[in-house]
Structures are given as structure tokens and as C-alpha cells.
Amino acid sequence: MLKTISPLLNADVLYALGAMGHGDYLILADLNFPSDSIARQTVLGKLLRMENTTSAQAAGAILSLMPLDTFIDNAAERMEIVGRPDELPDVQKEVQSEIDKAEGKPWPMKSIERFAFYEKAKKAYCVIQTGERRFYGCFVLTKGVIPPDAG
Fold first, then answer.
1. Are 53 and 132 in contact (CB under 8 A)?
2. Which H/E stretch holds residue 103?
3. CATH number given to 20-142
4. Nearest residue to 29 via CA among 93, 89, 110, 91
5. Extents of the domains making up the chain
6. DSSP assignments along 8-44, one per residue
7. Which of helix, strand or coil describes residue 68?
8. How many CA atoms lie within 13 A of 27 on its CB side?
9. Pick the catalytic residue: 118, 125, 136, 149?
10. Do the Cβ atoms of 123 and 44 come closer than 8 Å?
11. 8 A C-beta contact, residue 141 and residue 55
12. Is there a contact between 25 and 31 (Cβ–Cβ < 8 Å)?
């Protein structure tokens, strides 16, 4: 345990968050996502896990340390529901709430079609699989910067 760092963040996840640079992005995946096979194709090359967490819990812990990229309009993305791209299931509403809380303001979350999401995931820095059992608990989070004058 470390002070001010969520106990949900294990050593492997902390390493990945620290190693990522501005513009690198991670995949936050539910249990149904093909996490292991896609993770092998990422920059890190191995699957990271945050077991026993929901997507929202994992997002909250990650975003307590990692700022989102303010230079792009898709720093937070969600996997679209097949055939219903505008529908937001509860799991996505909960992650949206964690994003808004972490950034201190409403933050737009873009949607990405399922197969486009898979292709984008292969180019990610890493894949972090949560314990989320609900469908469409899959997200892309792009790392931003921390200004020199920030604590």
C-alpha cells in the first residue's frame, strides 16, 4: 500500500501508467473483450489485470494518476453497442461520471464502432482487463500531460 495511491492499482499497472507518454493510450477492457490476444499485439505486449473491479472503479483509480489528453477530442472513447451507437448502457454512464470527476468538468466521451475498437486496441500501449461482467465495459483512455507547475 502507498499513500494517496489507490490500492486497486497494482505494480504492473503503475509501471505502465508511469511508462506511458503523452498521446499513448490504454484499453480498459471488460471480461468479454479478447484481452489476452489483443494485449500481445500492444506496445507492452502482455495483459495487465485489475481483477475484482468494475470498469468505473478501474477508470477512477487510473484517472486519479493519469490526466487525459487535452490536445485531441477523443481522449476518452467507449465501444459502441452494435446496432445502437447512440445508446449508453449503465457501465458507460458510470465511467463517464468517473472521467468527469477526475477532470473536474464534463468531458466528452466519443464512441467507436466495435471492430474499429479492436483494431485501435492492437496499437495501444497496453490492455488492462477489469473484472467487469457487463457488456460494453470497454474504453480507450489517452494520456495527457502534467504541467511543470502542477503539484
1. yes
2. helix 90-103
3. 3.40.1650.10
4. 91
5. 20-142
6. TS-HHHHHHHHH--TT-EEEEE-TTS-HHHHHTTSSS
7. strand
8. 35
9. 118
10. no
11. no
12. no
Q: Which of 22, 24, 30, 90 is catalytic?
A: 22
Instruction: Give the model's pLDDT for residue 151.
Output: 59
Mean pLDDT throughout 98-113? 97
pTM of the model: 0.96
Dihedral Cα 106, 62, 133, 51, nearest 10 deg = -170
- Using CA atoms, how far apart are residues 79 and 140, in angstroms rounded to an integer? 8
Whether 12 sits among the annotated catalytic residues: the reply is no
d(CA 42, CA 3): 30
Give the span between the Cα atoms of 105 and 122, in whole angstroms. Answer: 30
Catalytic annotation, pick one of 25, 69, 125, 136? 69
CA separation (Å) from 134 to 102, 138, 151?
23, 10, 36
Average pLDDT over the chain reads 96
Per the listing, cell 467507436 goes with 112
Residues in a beta bridge with 49: 129
Using the structure block, give the residue that is written with the C-alpha cell 459502441: 80
pLDDT tens for 77-96 read 999 999 999 999 999 999 99
